Amino acid sequence: MGNYKNYKVWEKSHQLVFKIYGLTKNFPKSEQYNLISQMNRASISIPTNIAEGCGRETQKEFIRFLYIASGSAHELDYLLLLASDLGYIESEISKTVISEIDEIKKILAALINTIKTSLKT
């Protein structure tokens, strides 16, 4: 599987973690164990699962971890929408970050499809 740091999707998701942490630090303290924690954990889950998948023995295992990373990206997408609707994040900032998440989801899907195709040949 190789070095996870060589994957563009890992780098993008790693940078996303910093953005999410920056956004959530301004949330109300009442959300510390709720929305803040959930958003931070979902963001961390994306690059973490890519890295863990790279450490697995087979391509099928790698794909499984890429799916988990994709699930976390979808979760974070919703959490950003919720945070925006609650007034914790400006709508335009939320849209920009959701756009970045959409790109990560697309790259993950393409990587999964590429690996699946290589397994068939």
Explain how this protein is built.
With 121 residues, the protein is an all-alpha fold. It is elongated and about 50 Å long. The longest helix is centred in the C-terminal third of the chain and has 30 residues, at 91-120. It is 78% helix and 0% strand. The chain is built from four helices and no strands.
List the helices and strands and how they pair.
Layout lengths: L7 H17 L10 H20 L4 H27 L5 H30 L1
Helix pairs in contact: 1-2, 1-4, 2-3, 3-4
Task: For the structure shown, list the relevant keywords.
121 residues; mainly alpha; 4 helices; 0% strand; elongated
**Helix run count:** 4
What is the rounded Rg? 15 Å
Q: What is the CA-CA span between the terminal residues?
A: 17 Å
- Topology pattern, helix = H, strand = E: HHHH
What's the story with the biggest beta sheet?
none
Instruction: Tell me how many strands there are.
Output: 0
Helix-strand makeup class: mainly alpha
Percent of residues in helices = over 70%
Return residue spans where pLDDT drops below 50 for at least 5 consecutive residues: none
Categorize the overall geometry.
elongated
- Give the overall pLDDT as a whole number: 96
Strand content bin:
under 5%
InterPro entries: 23S_rRNA-intervening_sequence, 23S_rRNA_IVS_sf
Organism: Flagellimonas yonaguniensis
Protein name: Four helix bundle protein
Give a brief description.
This protein has 121 residues and is mainly α.
